[in-house]
Amino acid sequence: MTAEPKKAPWPKQSAELTAQGYVFSGRGVCKGCQRSIIWATTPKGNRMPLSSAGENSWQPHFTDCTQANRFRRHRPVRID
Ligand SMILES: [Zn+2]
How far is ligand 1, taken at its centre, from the CA of residue 70, in Å? Predict the structure, then answer.
């Protein structure tokens, strides 16, 4: 049995994201929790806020935002 998970695990390294087609597009800040985030464009063309998960490592901000339950109302904004 070699069933592999379909979903790619997070966090991911910067180089891994780039290799998969993600494009880092700028810095921002989450209006919910005030943490700095970065924007990335996914391979499908969607913009996704990422937060740091260590050196050169990123995860979707949704996963660690303390205000994630309010996220729909407090979307991160670009500051660059
Ligand atoms: Zn947040």
Answer: 9
Q: List Cβ neighbours of 31 (8 Å cut-off, separation of 6 or more).
A: 74, 75, 76, 77
pLDDT, position 64: 87
Exposed, middle or buried, 51 (CB in 10 Å: 0-12/13-18/19+)?
A: buried
Separation of CA 50 and ligand 1 centre (Å): 10
User: What's residue 78's pLDDT?
Assistant: 74
Q: What is the rounded distance in angstroms from the CA atom of residue 31 to the CA atom of residue 11?
A: 22
Distance 80 CA to ligand 1 centre (A): 18
